[in-house]
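Students often ask why inverse folding is considered easier than folding. One informal answer: many sequences map to the same fold, so there is more than one right answer. In these notes we will look at a single instance of the problem. The structure comes first.
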């Protein structure tokens, strides 16, 4: 009998740590649902001189890359499900994460992304800072690449209460990079488990 245990990749970009915290919670939820999990942080694409304008940016970048490593095409091919995380950038996906997604053309051309489960999560500074538009914008390349998009829906009580969104998990960090709340992290863990269940079912069906 083929192994139906899901391999889940959590690939994210985080500058100040809020998206990183959500990524860790998604990974916890996936592991709790029985997945083999890899967590990866995409590298920065700006120069050290630009990063120097934001205190701690370069140091946090080096720490996260040392802790998680950067995602590779081999990670993507290995995964049965991928959960993508990004901060909002003017209501859209960060350039750093989008650059990695744009590198998947070779796998797409070979049909190696078709049928993989996929979900998204984000963090934004304010309640109207583009969390929902960012999440939905990430659905567009997912559809082109052949992923099976797995939204949160209202499948957890905390979502019904307004923590996170039906499109994907989210947090509001404010102007001082506040970490996600316990409720927001609970939704992220739920998302990781939900995508794991879908990815395992798709793998078993293949």
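Output (designed amino acids):
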């Amino acid at each position: 009998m083929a192994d139906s245990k899901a391999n889940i990749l959590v690939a994210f970009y985080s500058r100040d740590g809020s998206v990183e915290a959500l990524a860790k919670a998604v990974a916890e939820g996936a592991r709790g649902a029985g997945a083999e999990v890899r967590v990866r942080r995409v590298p920065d694409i700006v120069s050290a001189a630009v990063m120097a304008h934001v205190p701690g940016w370069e140091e946090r970048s080096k720490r996260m890359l040392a802790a998680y490593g950067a995602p590779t095409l081999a990670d993507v091919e290995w995964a049965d499900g991928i959960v993508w995380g990004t901060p909002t950038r003017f209501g859209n996906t960060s350039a750093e994460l989008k650059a990695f997604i744009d590198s998947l053309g070779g796998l797409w051309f070979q049909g190696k992304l078709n049928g993989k489960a996929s979900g998204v999560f984000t963090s934004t500074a304010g309640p109207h800072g583009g969390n929902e538009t960012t999440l939905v914008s990430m659905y567009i390349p997912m559809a082109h690449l052949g992923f099976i998009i797995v939204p949160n829906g209202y499948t957890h009580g905390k979502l019904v209460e307004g923590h996170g969104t039906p499109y994907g998990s989210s947090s509001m960090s404010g102007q001082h990079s506040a970490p996600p709340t316990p409720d927001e992290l609970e939704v992220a863990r739920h998302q990781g488990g939900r995508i794991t269940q879908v990815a395992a079912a798709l793998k078993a069906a293949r």
